[in-house]
Design goal:
heterodimer; A: Cyclin A, domain 1; 46% helix; B: two-stranded parallel ribbon; two-stranded parallel sheet; 11 helices; 4 strands; CN_hydtase_beta_C (chain A)
């Protein structure tokens, strides 16, 4: 069974929008998510296949931004692996 | 880069602090790794490969046969990432134009092209380019002659396009030729 990430050939996603002179990351948090994910994979906390699987299962996959999906998948895996608790992740100081 | 004060940015900082307290990430090391990554991964790498292929038929033949091995000639490799990747270079000809996508996610030869643009990762591009490649190329202002071949990348195999050498560049050296090659040309949504 295909998952929602399997979008090849689908209709309804609207036009392709090219951003002139797009930077590698649009904000500091995107760069940090990218770097943290590399560190966690390199450190053996989870592997790339687990990470892709977690991204593909996100409820907001098609509506969230690319690095938002990365961050949510990373958090889901950290909780699933018992590295962090869901309460810890959700309890953002001042949030 | 901007330092966002959005709720998402606050959540990311929070999780980073938790991971730091567990000894799983080191902020100084993250910054260093990020800087090193961005300094290394650039479309200038892909452009150098293309320029070499344009001046050397022998290199071009090896590049199309076993790109991963040929990269060593220009001091590059597909290693160094988190996972070994196979590189496949596909050559544009007057009869066939190539374009690359990853319909399932965002697979891309980052080491040779730099971080991919948002449009490459967007569901809109991934969905449409396999259904209507000519329409997609036209939206980029490009209407190649001949057939269009779409290559769907995956976790293990990444693709890069070898554009056709533009006319009027006879006698140019590799550096000057490399200056003609764009990231979009290496993806296949531009002629060069």
């Amino acid at each position: 069974m295909s998952r929602m990430h399997d979008v090849g050939g689908a209709d309804g996603f609207g036009p392709i929008v090219e951003e002139p002179d797009e930077p590698p990351f649009h904000s500091d948090w995107e760069a940090h998510v990218f770097a943290m994910n590399r560190a966690l994979v390199a450190g053996g906390v989870y592997n790339l296949d687990e990470f892709r699987d977690a991204v593909e299962q996100l409820p907001g996959y098609l509506t969230s931004s690319y690095y938002e999906n990365w961050f949510n998948a990373m958090c889901a895996l950290l909780v699933r692996k018992g590295v962090l608790s869901a309460d810890e992740v959700d309890h953002v100081p001042g949030g | 880069m901007t330092h966002s004060s959005s709720p998402l940015a606050a959540r990311v900082r929070h999780v980073e602090a938790l991971l730091e307290s567990r000894g799983l990430v080191d902020p100084v090391e993250l910054d260093r790794a990020l800087e090193a990554f961005l300094a290394r991964a650039s479309p200038a790498n892909g452009a150098r490969i293309v320029a070499r292929a344009w001046v050397s038929d022998e290199f071009r033949a090896r590049l199309l046969d076993d790109a991963g091995a040929a990269l060593a000639d220009v001091g590059l490799s597909m290693g160094g990432g988190l996972q070994v990747q196979r590189l496949c270079v596909v050559e544009n000809t007057p009869a066939v134009h190539n374009v690359v996508v990853c319909t399932l996610c965002s697979c891309y030869p980052i080491a040779l092209l730099g971080p991919s643009p948002t449009w490459y990762k967007s569901p809109a591009y991934r969905a449409q380019v396999v259904r209507d490649p000519r329409g997609v190329l036209e939206s980029f202002g490009f209407s190649p002659d001949g057939e269009i071949a779409v290559w769907d990348a995956n976790a293990e195999t990444r693709y890069m396009v070898l554009p056709m050498r533009p006319g009027g560049t006879e006698g140019w050296d590799e550096e000057r030729l490399a200056g003609l090659v764009t990231r979009n040309g290496l993806i296949g949504v531009a002629p060069v």
